[in-house]
Amino acid sequence: MATSAALELVHLTKKFGETIAVDAIDLRIPGGSYCCLLGPSGCGKTSTLRMIAGHESATSGDIIVGAKNVTDLPPAGRSTAMMFQSYALFPHLTVLDNVAFALKMRGVAKDERYAEARKLLGLVHMERYEARLPAQLSGGQQQRVALARALITSPQILLLDEPLSALDPFLRLRMRAELKRLQRELGITFIHVTHGQDEAMALADLVVLMNGGKIEQQGSPREIFNQPRTEFAARFIGGHNVIPLNGETYAVRVDRLILKRPSEAVDGPRVNGTISKIEYQGTYVVVAISADDGTEIAAQLSDSEFDNGNYSVGEKVIVTWWPALASALNPNPSATVASPEAVA
Known about the structure:
The protein is built from nine helices and 18 strands. It is α+β, with helices and mostly antiparallel strands and 344 residues long.
């Protein structure tokens, strides 16, 4: 297996006619890390991945793998491999021949390519199925075969285009753990496109949140979740309220809000509102508040907090929080290079 390589994108841009899909982004992904490109449909994440793979040409900018500028090289010359969302297995070939196919195209002898293919099938726990055709496999099994096939060329960087999107929720969780295990065992760089916040939080060392063809914010999952820098980041990552107060805008996690009654003293920020809905969620209770200025706020309370407060729909409350636990939001995105902690 090849060693890992860092990836650097320098002012990388992709235009389709007059439409800018990727807008002069700069990004450095350390070698051996698991990076998730996260964002809604149309944000530029898949176009970025396809340019890295060489399946889309860059309009301008540079793609550097290790110390090598690969911007104008064909896919086979980039030390990358791509696992497609559809898996794209050859239906007429067995599992073993699917995995060994790239080595066959390189003229590797049959015994040698089969030996390497069997080693990779063992890595993804699919060695028992080598004689089957893709149609005889489940979705999760097909994904494992596609992973083994992508890895057989010993890439320094593995590119994954929404690899879990076709799986049912239970299998998605299981395969998520398998992807992380594989990345750790192989030690190569994984770059994984997803629109799922939970997926990115669970897998990534480095999360790159994209919006409108630009990088909105990047950092470790903990940094992105606890310290969103823009309203888009706070809303897309979820679990936050975006609250305007005194001419500023703040992101406050739903589990960090404190509810008080109007008769209680409040030492800190203060938002007046009315409880509009209460939802019991098993391990916690969500209390929805309509602020007097029209802002919709959600507070997540533990069972004991809710029971002690004895809140009810229609009741006036004060929403407050510890200022140190809130993030002041920048109205304009300003992604910075990830801190060393982001990829530790």
